[in-house]
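Regression test case RT-17, inverse folding.

Input:
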């Protein structure tokens, strides 16, 4: 990863946290990606959420720590490698 790629990933990830669908009342985690990422769920319900949090430099809820470790062990090798790369570049923040 280089600085340009990192900046791009950072911008895309940050946007996902605020991209509610038109008319969303900010309480619809089943249908809205931004809600799913930001509402205090007991476990994350958004595919690839770990990358979105890391690349968006967003603190991960402490209660999701074990879920995050699961992501680091994902059987999806392409996803896991991208996540590892992003963790190395951005680090991980905890709430
Ligand atoms: Zn929403």
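Golden output:
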């Amino acid at each position: 990863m280089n600085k340009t790629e990192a900046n791009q990933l950072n911008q895309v990830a940050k946007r996902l946290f605020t991209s509610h669908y038109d008319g969303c009342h900010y309480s619809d985690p089943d249908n809205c990606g931004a809600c799913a990422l930001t509402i205090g769920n007991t476990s994350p319900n958004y595919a690839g959420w770990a990358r979105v949090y890391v690349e968006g430099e967003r603190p991960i809820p402490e209660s999701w720590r074990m879920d995050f470790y699961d992501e680091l062990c994902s059987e999806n090798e392409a996803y896991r490698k991208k996540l590892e790369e992003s963790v190395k570049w951005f680090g991980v923040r905890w709430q």
